[in-house]
Amino acid sequence: MPVTAERSNDALVSLHEEIASLQERITLLEAEEMLWKNIGQSCEFPPDISALPAENSHFKFENIFDLSAIQQIQDAFADATDVASIITDPDGRPITKPSGFCCLCNDVIRKTEMGLKNCMRSDAAFGTLNPLEPIMRPCLSSGLLDGGTSIYVGKRHVANWIIGQRRTSSEPDKKIIAYAKAIGADEEAYQKAYEDVPIMSKEQFYKVCKALCLIANQLSTLAQQNYLQAQAIARRQQAEHALRESEERFRQLSDSTFEAIFIHHKGTILEANKAATTLFGFTREELIGTKIYALAVPEYREAVQAYSEQSGNVWFQGEFACKTSQSIIGEVQERNITFQGRNVRVCAIRNITQRIQSELAAKEKEQQLIQADKMVSLGVLVSGVAHEINNPNSFMTMNLPLINDVWQGITPILEEYYKENGDFLAGGLEYSSLRNELPNLVSRMQDGAARIKGIVNNLKDYSRVEPAELMWDVDINDMIRSSLPLLEKLISMHTNTFTADLAEELPPVRGNRQRLSQVFINLLVNACEALNCKNDSVTITSAYLAESNLVGISVADTGSGIPEHLLSKITDPFFTTKRDSGGTGLGLSVSSAIVQEHSGTLQFFPNPAGGTIAQLHLPAIIGGDS
User: Fold this and answer.
1) Is 60 exceeded by the pLDDT of residue 5?
2) What is the distance in angstroms between the CA of the first residue and the CA of the last residue of the chain?
3) Which of 181, 292, 412, 616 has CA atoms 20 to 30 A from the CA of 202?
4) Judging by DSSP bridges, how do beta strands 497-502 and 472-474 pair with one another?
5) pLDDT (tens digit, 9 = 90+) per residue, 292-316?
């Protein structure tokens, strides 16, 4: 199901509210992170963190500290105090590398399986609840003097720091030497390595252990601080991740919609989606910082500015200009949202240009059909009017010869009377003038009546509905001559220069005379209406093209002409450049269809002298074949 504009906008608003909430949360978490960074070392003992979530209960020393830095501290401490040193986990497994280990422990005892196991057990036994209180005792493996303390995070034991591997006397301990046999070590090597172990008094070793406790306590404090800071960072990263996901969802939703989406504050664009850049042709960078009303065409800018500065839900239509200077009609919806911590507005613009144009085109076609229906009705009316005119005109054509005969019959009597009595009045006119004018008047009346009859007959022929399949041999020149009287008035109104150059002895064409006359009249009417002034000309020519066996008719005018990019469209139904003057766009479309029925062609070309040339070609009949 397609997402409507309203549903799309609601989803975008919901996402913006979610993003705003996440941004506030990140701000609080950043403050918390800075707090732990600034704690320093003011704590005498790490605070209790036993209430931390269960999923954090298995954190490790190496996850809290930089092991390379700890290793350097351990190595420096061992070198400065002349003791062996290592940091292990609570189970005795080494975390750091040994520092200053003696040969006895490193190369003899720990090389045996049991010796290594006992060493780890001894290291694990150094755990204490008070890092400030050192443990000092013999190693549970080698028997050498060892010391150590624990490192805590709150009350959570994370590591042991162990020092030692020192003798307190130069006298060999037989019990310790016997340990070599118990663990399976080489006794001679064990004896030699034992003798190489450095000697340190218990008092000095205790001082070293106290220093170790102070350092370990500070590590515990630092561990607590690092852990809490790491947790704050982790929560902030989670919030930032959620924010990125929300922003990504917003981006995907806004980019998937076909509507241009703008986020703006008092009309200044803060954000724009992909559809906005596509619709208006500007880059995102060009749009940000621009006023929304600047996208509108000049006559709509004031209205768009007023709407964009309102509050609440708004709906309106406006016209906007793209970067390509093309204008669009946009359906605009606006509402309030929260974005980046402040109240702004989201504006959705849907391009409805095609819909509006389709509605206008539908109305236009409706008017065209109404006009076409009027023309059909006019054709029927013309036929009826022609019949009504023909009846009284027939009365005149029949009686005018009789009047002329009567005049000729009484003229001798009137002449005799004129000779005897002089001039006299007849119908208010002197006979001396009347005897010369009346024959001329009757003759002109007879010519007028004949002309009326010819025009009426041509109108009846033109408006007669004949089946398209009725075809006869048609003399093109005769068809042109019979059609011209219908257009004498139109031609005289538009031009002083009208030329008909008709070739002699044209072969006939096979066709419907009435329909071909309709085509010719349409072409001639269009040519006359294209003229700009009466000095422009119209020329009609007919010719036989022997090489292609075609009879051609050319109607050329020197008028305004037709733009070349429109020449291919002028025969489309309802296409017209004369809409304001009542054109329907049907004349040339119907003419083109008639020509195609006659297997001919109708083409239009620019006239080198200015204007347009219409060329009609029809197959000629030679010897009975076309």
Assistant:
1) no
2) 60
3) 181
4) unpaired
5) 888 899 888 888 888 887 777 888 8
Q: Which residues contact 182 (CB under 8 A, 6 or more apart)?
A: 114
Percent of the chain exceeding pLDDT 70 equals 75
**In whole angstroms, what is the distance from residue 459 CA to residue 454 CA?**
9
Q: What angle do CA 368, 372, 376 make, to 5 degrees?
A: 170
Given pLDDT bands bounded at 50, 70 and 90, which one contains residue 18?
low
Contacts of 250 (CB under 8 A, 6+ apart): 12, 15, 16, 19
User: Does residue 216 contact residue 146 with C-beta atoms inside 8 Å?
Assistant: no
Amino acid at 458: N
Query: What's the token pair of residue 568?
Result: 């291919």
Q: Which of 409, 78, 47 is nearest to 228 (CA)?
A: 47
Integer Cα distance of 119 and 109 in angstroms: 8
Report the C-alpha gap between 320 and 299 in whole angstroms: 10
Nearest one of 92, 93, 100, 101 to 75, comparing CA atoms: 100
Structure tokens, 294: 């600047």
**DSSP-derived secondary structure for 311-325:** -S-EEEEEEEE-TTS
The C-alpha angle with vertex 449 and arms to 448 and 454, in degrees rounded to 5, equals 95
The DSSP output letter for 167 is B
List, for residues 313-364, the tens digit of each pLDDT value: 888 888 898 888 888 888 888 888 777 667 888 888 888 888 888 888 887 7
Cβ(187)–Cβ(181) under 8 Å? Answer: yes
Residue 105 phi, psi dihedral angles, 5° rounding: -75, -45
Residues with Cβ < 8 Å from 484, sequence gap 6 or more? 491, 500
Residue 610 vs residues 231, 303, 358, 550, 558: alpha-carbon distances, Å: 85, 46, 35, 26, 5
Sign of CA dihedral 509, 515, 517, 518: negative
Helix extents (H) in 257-325? 274-280, 284-287, 298-308
Alpha helices in 200-265 (DSSP H): 202-256
Tokens 């409507």, residue? 4
> b or e along 470-496 (b: 16 or more beta carbons within 10 Å of the residue's beta carbon)?
ebeebbbbebbebbbebbeeebeebbe
Task: Give the residue from 541, 521, 529 showing the smallest Cα distance to 576.
Answer: 529
3-state SS class at 612: strand
Q: What is the pLDDT of residue 623?
A: 61
* Amino acid at residue number 121: R
